[in-house]
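Troubleshooting log. The previous structure file for this entry was overwritten by mistake, so regenerating from the original sequence record. Sequence copied from the archived sheet and checked twice against the printout by T.R.
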Amino acid sequence: MTSMELPDGAIELILEGWPVASLATVSEGGRPHVVPIVFVRVAGGIWSPIDGKPKAGGELARVRNVRRDSRISLLFEHYEADWTRLWWLRVDGEAEVRTPADPGADPEVAAALAALGRKYPQYQRIPLLGPSPTLLRIRVGVRRSWCASAAAVSVVCGDLGGPEPHQA
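Regenerated output below.
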């Protein structure tokens, strides 16, 4: 098994279409805080909503953490028993909390909300935003990746319906 980085084309497919990522923020005590998120890439950023599903109460830790320290990491990954098909992509960047008074009045927010609705049909049953509209906008900084083999790249392309990208 020969490991390598994911080609740029596969990374683009993941950022455009992978269904879920793990968001790591820095907690008040300096510890990592990791949660799964849904996301879309729009207007040069990655957007994740704080959706309208019931919450335990108060502002979510990921939002509090980003307000205090904008540094984040996103992890996208694929695991299966055939280890030749394993891959991961980590994006380090900065996030900001966006709380638009009128989400439709901000073109970037409106585009992100429309893209989230297209990507996740679940939002036909679950409110896309909670009572206080909140989204995280992530600016991508450093990208790091690994894949076990060319078969892992085929997993990305097959799952996301893209052409086989060439090694960059």
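Strands lie at 21-26, 32-37, 40-42, 45-49, 71-78, 87-98, 135-147. Archived copy saved in two places this time.
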